[in-house]
Amino acid sequence: MSGASKFLLDPYLDWTKKEGPPIHEDFGVDLLTAETGKWPRLGDQCSGAFIHLKGRGDWMTVFLIEVAPGGKSSPQQHVYDEVFYVLSGHGSMVVEIDGRRHSFEWGPRSMFSPPLNAKYQIFNGSGQEPARLASSNDMRLLMNIYHNEKFIFDNPFSFSEREGVAGFYSGEGEMTRIRPGRNMWETNFVADLGSFELMAWEARGAGSANMQFLLGEGSMGAHVSEMPVGSYKKGHRHGPGLHIFFIHGSGYTLLWYPGDKDFQRVDWRHGMCFAPPDEMFHQHFDTSSQPARYLAVGFGTKRYPIVYERRAGSEGRRTDVSIKDGGAQIEYADQDPRIHAIWLNELRKTGVRSQMGAFIDETNIAAIAG
């Protein structure tokens, strides 16, 4: 056997090429306009695409799924966890585990997760408009560990302990209060992330609010964060793989590595998804006349961190701790003055008043802004 033929293989990437749909690889991708194509696995009433972001890391990726008007997917079942976020359209999902069925209706900004290896089917409730959903999942990791398609998609084992209670499929849930930034809502379905009540997390930024989600006892974690009008969050960094979806409001994100002369920028709009690369500082800014809210999905949860970084963040040793103290956050007083100047210029375009005067002396920075 030739060693050269089996060297540095990536079974997941090989699988995506074989499956057929388009593959989009970029820093960020607009999921509402990205091209989809035939994906036989989902049936002839669906199309899809693979979204391979530069910052996705080794743990997870995103599938883009479009269901035709009045259409449905073929039944699905697999041993990777996934979190769905609805980009557009209305419909329903039917989940079956050990002969028990759960169904719920979803719409724009809904989030849900079927239990591991449960059978499910997606239905588009509109006969006029297609529906688009994003599936954030850890199939990349599973395929690269087992590199066996049959094991992943044709496995009869039932994880019945992950089913949860019936109310979790109708929008009910259970709150676990830990501390700001770690409070957790356990469920399988959230009807509208845009209106879900969050809890204050001032340590992350002026007036910031947050909620962690545990979905189906799975390995995929999610959190929703919000910035009030006229504010922005503190700069921070973490490992790769956290995929960010914008829920409402407008603004932008700046990204940089220490020593970079210039910032990279991602402008927010509904449908845009990006993943900050490994240990790249990034900072989120609200420029709109309403609070700006986003969803982040990644590998590891507050209940099951799985990887060291998630555990360190949950234990409070990194996430909202200043870099001066060994953490991963840049306090307002330590940030590059250009950051606030850029933001003030953006506010002039939208006519929104800054509410950051209590945290930053804006007198000299206003002069920098011009």
Give a structural overview:
This protein has six helices and 25 strands. With 370 residues, it is of the alpha+beta class. Strand 12 and strand 13 form a beta hairpin. The model has no long low-confidence stretch (mean pLDDT 94). The protein has two domains: 10-166, Jelly Rolls, CATH 2.60.120.10; 170-347, Sandwich (Jelly Rolls), CATH 2.60.120.10. The radius of gyration is 21 Å and the shape is globular. Strands 2, 12, 13, 15, 16, 17, 19, 22 and 24 form a nine-stranded mixed beta sheet that branches. Strands 1, 3, 4, 5, 6, 9, 11 and 14 form an eight-stranded mixed beta sheet that branches. Helix 1 crosses helix 2 (139-146). It has helices spanning 11-19, 139-146, 149-153, 308-314, 337-350, 362-369, and strands at 23-26, 28-30, 37-38, 46-53, 61-67, 82-88, 91-97, 100-106, 111-112, 119-124, 131-137, 174-176, 184-187, 189-190, 199-200, 209-215, 220-227, 235-236, 243-248, 251-256, 264-267, 272-274, 281-286, 292-299, 329-330.
What is the terminal separation in angstroms? 67 Å
Helix content class: 10-25%
Please identify the structural class as seen in this structure. Answer: alpha+beta
Rg of Cα set: 21 Å
Shape category: globular
Q: What is the overall pLDDT average? A: 94
Low-confidence spans: pLDDT under 50, at least 5 residues?
Answer: none
Beta-strand proportion: 25-35%
CATH superfamily of the largest domain: Jelly Rolls
CATH level-1 class of the largest domain: Mainly Beta
Looking at the structure, the CATH topology of the largest domain is Jelly Rolls
Total individual domains = 2
The total of helices stands at 6
Q: How many individual β-strands?
A: 25
- Main beta sheet strand tally, sense and closure: 9 strands, mixed
